[in-house]
## 1
Amino acid sequence: MSLKSVKVATKAYGDQKPGTSGLRKAVKVFQQENYTENFVQAILTALGECLKGSKLIVGGDGRFYVREAVDLIIKIAAANGVSKLWVGQDGILSTPALSALIRQHGATGGIVLTASHNPGGPDHDFGIKFNIANGGPAPDAVTTNIFNISKSLREYSIVPDLAADISKIGTQTFTVDGRSFTVEVIDPVEDYLRLMKEIFDFPAIKQLLSGAQTGSPFKVLVNSMNGVTGPYVDRIFVVELGAPADNTVNTVPLEDFGGLHPDPNLTYAAELVDALRRGDYDFGAAFDGDGDRNMILGRKAFFVTPTDSLAVLADNLDCIPYFRRTGVKGFARSMPTGAAVDRVAVAKNKELFVVPTGWKFFGNLMDAGRISLCGEESFGTGSDHIREKDGVWAALAWLSIVQHLGKPVDQILRDHWAKYGRNFFTRYDYEGCAVEPCDRMMSELEALVTAPGFVGRQLTAGGKSYTVRLGDNFQYRDPIDCSVTTKQGLRVLFEDGSCLVFRLSGTGSSGATVRLYVDSYEADPATHGEDAQVSAAAKPRQHRAFSLSPELAWETQCLVICSIQSTV
Ligand code: G16
């Protein structure tokens, strides 16, 4: 059947500015007349000369509105001269799997439909993100171009009568305006599984889980939080690695995540924490809605902070066949992430890069062969096997290390701290604030930390003195393309390596979220057994290191608290 595209007049929206990772808004915003259509058209127009004949991967985390969005993308892509789309069956693709598919097929890019760890459902969030040909999130120059196009859009092109069936695996070919247009519906798991089998030693992990290695089974509990990782987890952990079926839970992707907030941390993955505290599991893992974030627990819910996870992985990458083949290059972390990995880099004589928050900043370093591993405090860990962070990969990497070292998770951490010292890392989130007072607070704080005389000030807390080494608003110059990104968060670095960071979140769907990150370093083994994790609801003054006494803590807390009070 021969189909024709039409042009539809539209009015531009002024708010389609992608944040840290794509455009994230309430579902109801995307459901406004032509809102989704406009943004998809802006993404395609931004491809410029690459658009005609381009090939894209499309999929999402299964949340509410993914199916509608996939249908629109197919119709709009066909009208814009895209030649082929690979679409996950039923619109399902984890973010890491989509990144892998872009690279495997040499696609022009991909469109990821997710609001990541934000709740889903008609009254919650949706998101659209564009990934470039290396498989990673589009860099700032691309997203700025998309935003600029969206602001002056007057029409979009669509093939209203094109009906592709995304429920069945197979290829459908259409003739649109005399050109051929193909939609290939693919199994979401198959290619990703093949990649994982190339990276990890599956038979060795299987032996660990079954007990063939030590004489008793190593019991895992994996919680997909009703997000997209369910089909991947069931296939990998149960079918391939032989874990009992009841060791994976919440593995059916649901449009509203079954009411869960699919963010794998101690607060929102409490079900996993409780199960590990009660049960006799050796290992727990949870993933977020789109499968790029991970949380790792050991016996009795021993919590591995993302900061420690990155450092331990860096220290043990040679346990993993992929890195034995490729060699271990450098490491990278986002600026607010605790500095534990820095010490590993020094010990191993590897390059270490500190980039702004956002996975997109790791892409160039990976493409240039400068880093093998990177991570963020926001429960993201990944390697250069793809260009997104990868939750399931992180769990398999940890199991590889446990298998190789023959030690449980908690022992691996204690040994790591004994060797390198320990970074106590905590993050405090102030959500749902009004934008203007938060912006004002950040300006006032910036004036404080960059004032003459701030460097060298002695601050005492918890009986310990900290000397300010640097106060700034973090700026990053990409060592590969030399692009400069400014105003990425306020830093106060101390001479012993401890650090305070303030920044505004770039992933919220409305209002402002203030994040305060505290990283304090302890070399003294007597302190290493202390609990790093203060309740997520705790105020900064409860933190063990930076309590009320020093001027800095007092001033910053007042500013944060005043700003929050002025919003209620
Ligand atoms: C996204 C990015 C991450 C980043 C995080 C920060 O995560 O992909 O690289 O660390 O946002 O979020 P915020 O700006 O709120 O601190 P995700 O998992 O939401 O895509």
## 2
Amino acid sequence: MNLSQKTVAKVAISHKITIPSYDRKNTEIGIVHLGPGAFHRAHQAVYTENAMNLSGGNWGICGVSLRSATARDVLSQQDYLYTLATLDKNISYQIIGAIKEVLVASEQSELVIERLSAQNTKLVTLTITEKGYCLNADGSLDLTHADIAYDLNNSSSPISAIGFIVEGLKQRKAKDIPAFNVLSCDNVSGNGDKLQKAVLDYAEQVDCSLAKWIKNNVAFPNSMVDSITPKTEEYTVNTVSSAIGMQDNWPIQREEFTQWVIENNWQGEKPDWDKVGVIFTNDVDGFEKAKLRLLNCLHSTLAYAGALVGYETIFEVTSDAVFHDFITKLTTREVIGSFEAPKELDVLSYSKEIIERFLNPEIRHLLSQIAWDGSQKLQMRILPIIQDNIALNRPTKLLCFSLACWMEFICRALKNGEDIVDPLADKFAQMPVLFTKDTAKIVDAFLSIDSIFSEDLMDNAVIKNHLITNLNSLRMGNKLHLGKIMEALC
Ligand code: CS2
């Protein structure tokens, strides 16, 4: 039996397996979500589901995949129902019904714009990853980005998230329908502010009065999102299907911990998220920085350093005492103190809990997944710490080790002819120096990429030296050796 609206009532409900308790059929769409990947389905969709289980409301979600049709094709076979498997000390399964449809923007752009401009749509949320914002290093919209340039010439059938948002708002303005709120849920610092800047820069190219209307009418709250969500693998499908007693072809897996902090910057209605654990605050910045620096920075460090010695998962690499010790010292010596944490956050115990979360044996979080898009992720999770530490006269040695591991990771992949998942993959492949042994030139070549590094980092002799020393050491390395470098650095 396959999971569907017809069969869901037959799921073997227990305290560990739950199904939607609201009137799903009569729930209307109130949210359009751009990028309905695993993280959205394990996080925002679940908070929305829990809010509807508690108090109903027309907060069904229309998921919009910008390119890939897989989510639509698989989920439409099961009426968009899927299982959230919480894999931790406690294991549980929840069938989620919040997503009511999935559209594929590249095939159904008219329908997407129709949903965006519908009276009922109160909210647009996004998980489009760092690269989806199409920003220059100075935070302005990259008007030369291929997708943005395309959209500016084809604004009624766009392909980028920014193009869709502006077109949707344009139609609302024309029809005199109130604007929606736009909530970024990506691991990007100041995500709402950055998105607002991108949207306004784009709208100004289309029509200045539209840009003004957006500025005055659309709220772009900042938010911090957190929950470790590895991608769905075959074993996830098999375990979940046997647990719920029917076939679910696209469940998702997640740890038990989940957090969502949203800025108090809102117009009109919203789901009862505050009743199901979402924190609304005026200081998202502190929470965002804490999470990006104390969790994501360690994740990327482990992903690149761990991959260099052949580890596959976060659990494996964190279980190695040398790596565990390194990230603990990285945290206490270079990360904590680089930013002002929110008063209500006990940073030491927060960071300890994060490292404990990495040691969840139920979750197979692949280093290769975290290693994706390094050229984008590093700008959010490692480089700002280095910059703040330089300004505060604090050490940067261990952070430079993380960065050197990324450089070596890219060079090795190029030399071995392996695929690099990164928007700059082609650029790396066209940099002959990355294939050589000249570590000083390699560091220079990386640092000269101005879409990643700001001038202050490019020209900083101390940083350059740390990077060259680390890269030299890494090149001598086997697993034992890498352990020794890490120990020596500490
Ligand atoms: C990870 C994040 O893939 C990655 O880069 O660091 O997705 C991480 O698991 C989440 O931010 C946790 O909330």
